Amino acid sequence: xxxxxxxxxxxxxxxxxxxxxxxxxxxxxxxxxxxxxxxxxxxxxxxxxxxxxxxxxxxxxxxxxxxxxxxxxxxxxxxxxxxxxxxxxxxxxxxxxxxxxxxxxxxxxxxxxxxxxxxxxxxxxxxxxxxxxxxxxxxxxxxxxxxxxxxxxxxxxxxxxxxxxxxxxxxxxxxxxxxxxxxxxxxxxxxxxxxxxxxxxxxxxxxxxxxxxxxxxxxxxxxxxxxxxxxxxxxxxxxxxxxxxxxxxxxxxxxxxxxxxxxxxxxxxxxxxxxxxxxxxxxxxxxxxxxxxxxxxxxxxxxxxxxxxxxxxxxxxxxxxxxxxxxxxxxxxxxxxxxxxxxxxxxxxxxxxxxxxxxxxxxxxxxxxxxxxxxxxxxxxxxxxxxxxxxxxxxxxxxxxxxxxxxxxxxx
Amino acid sequence: xxxxxxxxxxxxxxxxxxxxxxxxxxxxxxxxxxxxxxxxxxxxxxxxxxxxxxxxxxxxxxxxxxxxxxxxxxxxxxxxxxxxxxxxxxxxxxxxxxxxxxxxxxxxxxxxxxxxxxxxxxxxxxxxxxxxxxxxxxxxxxxxxxxxxxxxxxxxxxxxxxxxxxxxxxxxxxxxxxxxxxxxxxxxxxxxxxxxxxxxxxxxxxxxxxxxxxxxxxxxxxxxxxxxxxxxxxxxxxxxxxxxxxxxxxxxxxxxxxxxxxxxxxxxxxxxxxxxxxxxxxxxxxxxxxxxxxxxxxxxxxxxxxxxxxxxxxxxxxxxxxxxxxxxxxxxxxxxxxxxxxxxxxxxxxxxxxxxxxxxxxxxxxxxxxxxxxxxxxxxxxxxxxxxxxxxxxxxxxxxxxxxxxxxxxxx
Lengths: 412, 412
Description:
The structure is a homodimer of 412-residue chains.
Chain A: H1 10-26, E1 29-30, H2 31-38, H3 42-54, E2 58-63, E3 73-77, E4 83-89, E5 93-100, E6 105-112, H4 119-136, E7 144-151, E8 155-156, E9 160-161, H5 176-184, E10 188-192, H6 193-203, E11 211-217, E12 221-227, E13 230-231, H7 262-266, H8 268-277, H9 287-299, H10 303-327, E14 331-335, H11 337-357, E15 367-370, H12 377-391, H13 399-407
Parallel strand pairs in A: 4-7, 7-10, 11-14, 14-15
Antiparallel strand pairs in A: 1-3, 2-3, 4-5, 5-6, 8-9, 11-12, 12-13
Family (chains A, B): Belongs to the ROK (NagC/XylR) family.
Protein name (chains A, B): ROK family protein
InterPro entries (chains A, B): ATPase_NBD (IPR043129), ROK (IPR000600), ROK_cs (IPR049874), WH-like_DNA-bd_sf (IPR036388), WH_DNA-bd_sf (IPR036390)
């Protein structure tokens, strides 16, 4: 299928993706306008558009109002022509979304997490879930482009996670992409939660900043970076690991092997521990739920929970400042399940820190926003990863993983 | 002149720059090989090469050994066809270099710094210096492409520095680029010391890392970032400001308005203050000289100076780790005058920290090296900035500054 299909020339795939993305972004657009916007010849546009129509990805949507001369035929995306599945794999829960080519979410659901189960069992469970739901919502399996799987970083395209939080030790070096490709028959793109969330944020639109980061807080803290519409990945696709920078040389030990990490000082696990120490009563059903309890109490104005969260917010402010200074950002978006719950308590602290301490504040400000997709940002990002690879290959997921997908048969 | 010349189409300038850069990188290369390497048509290569030869930038260097058929004419760069001037403007000293198109330094000299002099006087002094030395070393002024001026960040392309260390207050918002263009008649590119040093490092060759940072320590601390051969600039060309991230929420106040900054804890000024507190006797002729005195004593094995520098090195290690985590780096190069003096004391600490705390260490290591250009890295970078804009426009200095240069008459 299109750019994931073996045998398609790179240049053709790239012009096809660029034209498809222009049509998506424009809503409706004529061939003449495409010629102008791309710089391709009219003949190239005509050939590529013909092929996109034949493949069902684009439809002719009637003629524009005449401005004299023959009115132009308008083209638009057929959003239901293709679908992508996004999976957010975490120990506490697995979140799924199915998105169509237009980026609309047509299904979203959540199942129990990986827990301490054998990774092979979890992979079989994921494959069965996807098969069942694709059938239930009536999506033609032939139209599913691929699967974007999102997990805590750091990851490697071959083996999946190379370093895992203690609860997911069994996944270290597990060949996640290959196992899921075997189990689902779908090409698999792999990325970490924060990077996927940034892609999802960009994809869902409205981002005008030339440089922005999604600051992601689930049970851990990470970030995804997009500059000039392109994901910033670094040498091994693990850029943005802001949760494990050191902000206190004498700080507490972190599961990552370092000490004084932002995650160890300000992440939900640290917040829960600090709350317990302050005598706050918690249900004790895991960090996510306990964190939510603290956030609700703080929102009601209770002093002790507020103090605990404000301390976390100060460190998150430092994380935002560090990202802004290193990357010269214009926008920081707070996202992920923990900011979905407590984001409004963090925003004022992060804003204040950036206003006071962002180094290039003489040049421009750094805006702070909460994502409207915060609770399922990672799964939405997984689907966006696949759509992105279809529409704009150079912004796609981890390169090696895409290459791998290209070598695979594309049948579903 | 070439890409700095007004009226040249962007596409032509870009293919010309790409071909010129290929010839430079190859040493010698034939037209057929250029066709293969670029994907341009033989006709385009022929036209562009003819123009490069006419302009004196490229010469025919004899025929390759025959492999049957007519031996191919080899092309090579004429390094003395063009020159670039690099100026590193600092309060303690102004360093100048003249580099030729091949990147060789044909002159380097140093003069007293800006001190507290009126910026207009300093600009006049710089223009006179350049004029005199260009004449003295026998460079044809018509062959000087431009001037790359490097100063402490953050900077803005229009006004120069937007936030300055206390000693250079008079330069805040001074229209540096415009004043120097008026005074020298040369197009001026502006950048901060650390970014320029990174470009110079990349330019001087041998960098194979896909993502690297130059960690620069002069009197302040900063960094320049290059990924896949392209400078990472961020939204306003102030990316890499690692000296002003917070690593201690309760740390000392910094001149930048924040507190607990790496520069305030580990920069030469902080090192000198800590040494004084530890009772180490210092000449007291400015931070740079005092820092050098401490470094020499530490190199002789004296305990107190060693302790003071090790503490600084721990924080520099944190800076390197932060850069590596956020950017997923493969290489950190220590450069600038302070690392030129004390770098070998810092390397083991930085290496140890990265080996232990770089988050994606399961994927790859991060190498640490000292620049061979460390003392004059910023000035060399200033010249590289200009050469880079001639050879590979998309990697050039600050965009707005280049645009500005394009609007200027190109006469020297």
